[in-house]
Each structure stands twice: as structure tokens, then as C-alpha cells.
Amino acid sequence: MAKQPGLDFQSAKGGLGELKRRLMFVIGALIVFRIGSFIPIPGIDAAVLAKLLEQQRGTIIEMFNMFSGGALSRASIFALGIMPYISASIIIQLLTVVHPALAELKKEGESGRRKISQYTRYGTLVLAIFQSIGIATGLPNMPGMQGLVLNPGFAFYFTAVVSLVTGTMFLMWLGEQITERGIGNGISIIIFAGIVAGLPPAIGHTIEQARQGDLHFLLLLLVAVLVFAVTFFVVFV
């Protein structure tokens, strides 16, 4: 039986409408992510923190700041980013290889996948708590950074830990919502958005170094290739 052109048109129109809704959801979620990256942890002097990060140019701290979309330099509630989730996912994946019970869960299909996802969430929470405690207790004691924390004490530690943990768990939830209601893998999209947001200042600083002769052209080319490779891996792998 021949297909009716009207039905094909309605089906295509419905598909485009669904695609539009999903794209709008992703855009809205990324706007929320960017707004959250500007909400600071209470009790931090952002000017002192910016001075500290200026001294850390070229180190792994600057790279971590780029992956968080600049949230670290602003002492944002999203300063931990989605890294605790990524670490928890890697740990759980390794455990599914060596732990018989988790290996069996992996073979149970959708129900097993849901349980593994739940364990990953628990692992994310634990790692986020430990990392946020380390950050909260380390900030007031950083050498040469007096005044970074306005009022050190239990109130600051508690507020900072709660803020950082809540920020990470919210990003994890937001990533899952993008995966379910948007397009692509939500966690990868959030990581990519953070990288893109942090690229302009990083590129500007790198070009300035190359112009002044502080950075060799071949090294600049290598950095460009690495940035492209990381971006390709995050988006397409």
C-alpha cells in the first residue's frame, strides 16, 4: 500500500517539533549552568582568589579552572564541577570488572544499569563531600593568601561544604535531565560547555605569550591539537 504524503508530512513536522523542544531544553539547561557558575560560595574574597589563580598560570589548577568554565576562579558553587561524578563513574566501571556482584548487575540489562547508576550517584556524593571538605579546610590556611576567607570557622566550613556538594549533585542531576530530555550525553555536554566557556581567556593568554616570545610556535601548535583532540573526545566518544 502506498504511503500517504499527508501522513509523512505530519510525521516529519512532529519530529521537528520534538527536536526543537529537546534543543531548547539543552540551551535552557546550559544557561542555568552558566548562571550557577557565577554564584559564589559565601565567605570568599573573590579578588584574593583571582590573585592566587593568576600565580598558578600554566599549572594543573588553571586547566581545572578551564574545565569548570571559570567556576573555580570565581569561587562558585560549581567549583568542583562534574569531576566527582566522572571519578565515581570510572571507579564503578572498574569495580564491575573485578567485583562479581557488580559484574552480574551489568548483565541484567536495564534494571542492572539503573542500579549501577544509583551506585554511581552515591559514589559521587561521597567523593564530593571529601573534596569539598578538603577545599573548605584548605582555603583559610593557604600561605600568602591571608584574607581569602573573610570569617574562617565552623560556619564557613559548613556553608562551603554544603554549597560545593549541592552544586556538584545539581550538575549531575542536570546532566541526567539533558540526557533524558535533551540531545546527547548530558554530562559530556556540560563538560564541553565548561571547556568552551573557559577557552576564550585561555586562548588570549596563550596567543599573548606566543607574541611575546614566551611560548614556542611548535608548543602553541601542540596545545591547539590537544584542545581539538579533547573537544572531539568529549563530544563524539
From TrEMBL:
<dbReference type="Pfam" id="PF00344">
    <property type="entry name" value="SecY"/>
</dbReference>
<dbReference type="GO" id="GO:0015031">
    <property type="term" value="P:protein transport"/>
</dbReference>
<keyword id="KW-0812">Transmembrane</keyword>
<keyword id="KW-0472">Membrane</keyword>
<feature type="transmembrane region" description="Helical">
    <location>
        <begin position="119"/>
        <end position="139"/>
    </location>
</feature>
<keyword id="KW-1133">Transmembrane helix</keyword>
<feature type="transmembrane region" description="Helical">
    <location>
        <begin position="75"/>
        <end position="98"/>
    </location>
</feature>
<feature type="transmembrane region" description="Helical">
    <location>
        <begin position="23"/>
        <end position="44"/>
    </location>
</feature>
<keyword id="KW-0811">Translocation</keyword>
<dbReference type="GO" id="GO:0016020">
    <property type="term" value="C:membrane"/>
</dbReference>
<feature type="transmembrane region" description="Helical">
    <location>
        <begin position="186"/>
        <end position="203"/>
    </location>
</feature>
<dbReference type="InterPro" id="IPR030659">
    <property type="entry name" value="SecY_CS"/>
</dbReference>
<dbReference type="InterPro" id="IPR002208">
    <property type="entry name" value="SecY/SEC61-alpha"/>
</dbReference>
<comment type="function">
    <text>The central subunit of the protein translocation channel SecYEG. Consists of two halves formed by TMs 1-5 and 6-10. These two domains form a lateral gate at the front which open onto the bilayer between TMs 2 and 7, and are clamped together by SecE at the back. The channel is closed by both a pore ring composed of hydrophobic SecY resides and a short helix (helix 2A) on the extracellular side of the membrane which forms a plug. The plug probably moves laterally to allow the channel to open. The ring and the pore may move independently.</text>
</comment>
<keyword id="KW-0813">Transport</keyword>
<feature type="transmembrane region" description="Helical">
    <location>
        <begin position="154"/>
        <end position="174"/>
    </location>
</feature>
<comment type="similarity">
    <text>Belongs to the SecY/SEC61-alpha family.</text>
</comment>
<keyword id="KW-0653">Protein transport</keyword>
<dbReference type="InterPro" id="IPR023201">
    <property type="entry name" value="SecY_dom_sf"/>
</dbReference>
<feature type="transmembrane region" description="Helical">
    <location>
        <begin position="215"/>
        <end position="236"/>
    </location>
</feature>
<protein>
    <recommendedName>
        <fullName>Protein translocase subunit SecY</fullName>
    </recommendedName>
</protein>
